[in-house]
Amino acid sequence: MEIYQVSVFVENKSGKLADITDVLSENGINIRALCIADTADFGILRLIVKDPQKTEKILTEHGFTVTLTRVIGAAISDTPGGLSAVLRILSDAGISIEYLYAFIEKTTDRASVILRVDDDVKAEQVLSENGIELIGGDAFHE
Amino acid sequence: MFFNKKIETMAREDLKKLQAERLRKTVERVYNNVPLYRERFDEYGIKPEHIKTVDDLKNLPFTYKTDLRDTYPYGLFAAPMRDVVRIHASSGTTGKQTVVGYTKNDIDVWAECVARAMVSVGGSSEDIVHVSYGYGLFTGGLGIHEGATKLGAAVVPVSTGNTARQINIFKDFGSTILCCTPSYAMYLAEAVKESGISPDELKLRIGIFGAEPWTEEMRQEIEKGLGIKAYDIYGLSEVCGPGVACNCYMQNGLHVQEDHFIPEIIDPDTGEVLPEGESGELVFTCITKEALPLIRYRTRDISSLIYEPCECGRTTVRMTKPCGRTDDMLIIRGVNVFPSQVESVLLNIEGVSPHYHITVDRVNNLDTMEVQVEMSPSLFSDSVKVIQEKEKTIKQALLSTLNISVGVKLVSPKTISRSEGKANRVTDNRKNR
What we know:
A: 7 strands, B: GMP Synthetase, Chain A, domain 3, 4-stranded mixed sheet
């Protein structure tokens, strides 16, 4: 199962981000992971949630601009060098990373990293071949 | 089809004779009844008897909007108040309001102009005319209303506002012709889409839009969004109201109701009449109005005139779609910019919403112009780079058309105000400094 990230446009104006999180809160949507990209003019809120399709629908209905993007997930050890191992493998395979964000899991000693790359299939293949544990959508979505 | 075939297809020579005769009467009327005209004609050394043909028109002085304001409210009326049956006033968006009056005959002429316009785009007494122009002092609502009534169509006087009700009326009443401002038509098209109704479910087939400048690109958007043919109607309250000119079904220029209004195109700086086909400021002389027959009224609209016969069979001159008003024009770092140019550029870029707002400012003595554009699904991406590239495309398209660099700001969808009347697309902060 693939991981789908919900990306939401955030106008660079105070209160705009809270407008989005309010909608999520009112609709009982829990954020599993998030990252915000920001420029001088606008931001993009990237979310990993349980039901990306439903979240997309609700946010769209509330007038936000939303898109779903396929991302990949990798489990890394929560120790120095954990992320570096993953990045080196991708770099060696000539895969470009658009962006990534990582988070630590509550119960284990590992961290998860969400990656947006230019070639998902190849990235998953090389990571897997190099002994990196991939995280599927079932870890986040239902 | 014609509402008044005899007039609308009259040989140009005969039309000129008719115009000359009516012009002579009008000049005499204003000279005798309106002190401002008498003084001004005297100043120019012109007596009514000097005006014999339409060609003599160019010797007469212009009338300006300020003349209406200076003689506020009734100073330019050429008929006694006992003959005046209607008063309208301009919205005052560009200053103090101006007051216009009509006699019974003026109202009849106006209604005839609107009825001719409706027939020229394929309307008939079978139609259900949905009027979403504002009713009241604004000439849009009542003007269209009287014209549709004269045609014998069924008029639904919805007026502006309450968009949900507008859509219900489309559905339940079976409106076939929609009349409103183009920006409101755009808004209605968007609302129809959001309510999940396909344009095919509606009986709407014709839209007659006016009261503000709009572009060819916007016409196409509206046509697609509402499943109609969209036509341009032109008019201004000082001259009459909507119906001074209108597209025919050919959608190629607007036929001027020349038996009532004589158009000229002049150089706005020198006041000289420009050669046929050249673009300049549109000037109208009313030749049948009784209450307010303005002579050579400076509309400030930019247009040109096409004298070649139209395929529809009408012999009347056509004016090109006004591309803006001389007073809408922004001067940014010495370059003339019309909001309509920005609209054209934006609508030519796939996925850009037609709602925009221009903010002009002066920072360190340098003019700045920022165009706010709403984020749309096709502009959006999870990647900053992709969005910035699209932003750059918009900037470059604006630069190549306007010849100045313009800032582009992406804002949340539906945050640029939708207008139910005339759209307000420009904020010029330089005026407040």
